[in-house]
Amino acid sequence: MRFPQIVVCAFDAWAANQLRELAAAQRWLLREVRQPAAALELAREPRPTVLVVQADPTADRPDPLRLVADARRLAPDAAAVVFSDVKLSDGDRAAWTAGVFDLGARYVLFPPLQRLVLEDLVGGLMAATLRRVVGPDEPGGTIDLADERYGDD
After folding, report:
1. N or C: which end of the chain has fewer CB within 10 A?
2. Are 7 and 37 in contact (CB under 8 A)?
3. What is the pLDDT along the chain (153 residues), one digit of tens a residue?
4. Nearest one of 66, 113, 11, 142 to 121, comparing CA atoms
């Protein structure tokens, strides 16, 4: 098995910067891209993946949402988190969140966005992904790269 990765597809570097220390401490790859096609290509790699996608519910740009739907179909083991820095009314937020869940996101975040929340969420999703891939027999979800079951990175 290859090293786990966090793929961040965002308009700016904020989310990647918030996850940089977590990725380094856990020895996970952190890949930051701006184009949804590049994020999908990375999510399809055979490795545990958490996909973090920034979307703007007020913009007429379906690419981030299409990425979530495509990842659900083409990379079903990748856990998707969608975040927005746009404030919406309660009704609009609930409707938009329901639509994003239908597309395949596991979590949807709105302001106020905090580093600890994002770290805990991504870390928990990665731990669940590792347990699913590696199995519960490995203590703490650790991966023994010398084990013959896993290929080289």
Report:
1. C
2. no
3. 589 999 999 999 999 999 999 999 999 999 999 999 999 999 999 999 999 999 999 998 899 999 999 999 999 999 999 999 999 999 999 999 999 999 999 999 999 999 999 999 999 999 999 988 777 655 444 444 444 444 444
4. 113
The pair of structure tokens assigned to 134 is 């590696």
Dihedral sign (CA 19, 94, 37, 72): positive
State both tokens at 71.
Answer: 């990842």
The CA distance from 43 to 59, in Å, is 24
Structure tokens of 73? 């179909």
Sign of CA dihedral 29, 34, 37, 38: negative
Which residues, in sequence order, are CB contacts of 60 under 8 Å at separation 6+?
none
- Cα(82)–Cα(104) distance, integer angstroms: 10
In order of their start, the domains of the chain are: 5-141 (3.40.50.2300)
Helix 36-43 vs helix 63-74: angle between axes, to the nearest 10 degrees? 20
